[in-house]
């Protein structure tokens, strides 16, 4: 009986660890993106498209900061705050859809490298969102 209890506790810890790692990966990617967007806004804007304003790239980078802070807050007590992880996963999927809408709506405004940049960052965010959903589903078992 005691070994079953320990086994369940160990499984619960590993399940929250998977979700915690997925969220921490998201926070790290978002933090690094934020730093690049803030401190290299001008060069990144020119890389994405000739008419892209640097202030917009910087504003996007600054907007990542509270997102990263909220992910960190969730991961500090994942056992108690795991429901908030669902919001982060949904926000990631909203970001992916928005990225592709911007990409297709402004196709001619972006350089070839800029198109790839937008698509690849959206795919990374999509994978992180899927990993978070998998982590949440593991917790529900």
Short description:
The protein is built from 5 helices and no strands. By secondary structure, it is mostly helical. The chain has one domain.
Question: Would you spell out the secondary-structure blueprint of this structure?
Answer:
Layout: H1 2-39, H2 41-48, H3 54-76, H4 78-105, H5 112-140
Helix pairs in contact: 1-3, 1-4, 1-5, 2-3, 3-4, 4-5
Question: Which descriptors apply to this entry?
Answer:
141 residues; mainly alpha; 5 helices; 89% helix
How would you describe this structure to a colleague?
This protein is mainly α. It is built from 5 helices and no strands. The chain has one domain. The model has no long low-confidence stretch (mean pLDDT 91).
Structural class call reads mainly alpha
Report the biggest beta sheet as strand number plus sense, adding barrel if it closes.
none
- Give the percentage of residues in beta strands: under 5%
- Tally of separate domains: 1
What is the mean pLDDT? Answer: 91
* Discrete helix count: 5
Q: How many β-strands, per DSSP?
A: 0
- Termini Cα gap: 20 Å
Q: Any idea what the radius of gyration is? A: 18 Å
- Overall form: elongated
């Amino acid at each position: 009986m005691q070994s079953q209890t320990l086994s369940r506790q160990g499984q619960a810890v590993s399940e929250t660890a998977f979700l915690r790692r997925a969220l921490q990966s998201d926070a790290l990617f978002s933090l690094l993106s934020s730093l690049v967007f803030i401190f290299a806004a001008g060069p990144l804007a020119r890389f994405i498209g000739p008419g892209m304003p640097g202030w917009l790239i910087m504003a996007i980078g600054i907007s990542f900061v509270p997102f990263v802070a909220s992910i960190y807050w969730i991961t500090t007590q994942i056992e108690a705050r795991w429901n908030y992880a669902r919001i982060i996963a949904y926000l990631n999927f909203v970001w992916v859809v928005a990225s592709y809408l911007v990409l297709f709506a402004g196709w001619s405004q972006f350089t070839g490298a800029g198109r790839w940049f937008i698509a690849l960052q959206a795919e990374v965010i999509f994978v992180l969102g899927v990993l978070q959903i998998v982590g949440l589903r593991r917790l529900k078992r």
